[in-house]
């Protein structure tokens, strides 16, 4: 599939999710990613993007997958023209979302009920030994400094961290 064909397909899918679920464009992109890439059911994908919004502490997607025993945390950036410029600091911020999620009292003070629920689920899943899978997805070309940072994280944390970092760049 060409880049232009993929963008046309992606925009159509995002618009479909936006209308069907009455979502922002960013959350609709998250639903597409969660259903198509992470293979979540639509109801689970909708739940996963519910944390995205004001004061979300860089958590745009959060889901504890009981079936595969993993925690998925994502930072998602959509640009319908495929021109989003990924930022290394966004990727690094994503990695540090677990610092917030570990501190339930600090999350409660922030007043975001969806994030509070995510923090509660996160701590329970961590206690059960679930690994964390970070997903940084953006609709734009690959950026070397972001790819390098993702690779360095995965290499340096292998054996020390029970998760991985996945960068998805579309197209």
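Sequence proposed for the structure above (171 residues):
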């Amino acid at each position: 599939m060409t880049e232009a064909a993929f963008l046309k397909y992606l925009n159509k899918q995002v618009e479909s999710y936006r209308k069907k679920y009455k979502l922002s464009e960013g959350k609709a992109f998250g639903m597409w990613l969660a259903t198509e890439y992470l293979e979540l059911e639509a109801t689970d994908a909708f739940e996963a993007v519910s944390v995205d919004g004001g004061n979300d502490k860089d958590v745009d997607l959060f889901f504890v997958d009981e079936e595969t025993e993993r925690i998925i945390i994502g930072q998602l950036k959509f640009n319908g023209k495929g021109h989003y410029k990924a930022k290394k600091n966004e990727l690094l911020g994503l990695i540090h979302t677990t610092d917030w999620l570990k501190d339930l009292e600090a999350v409660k003070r922030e007043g975001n009920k969806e994030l509070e629920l995510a923090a509660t689920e996160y701590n329970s899943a961590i206690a059960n030994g679930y690994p964390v899978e970070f997903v940084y997805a953006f609709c734009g070309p690959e950026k070397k400094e972001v790819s390098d940072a993702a690779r360095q994280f995965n290499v340096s944390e292998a054996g020390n961290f029970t998760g991985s970092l996945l960068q998805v760049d579309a197209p």
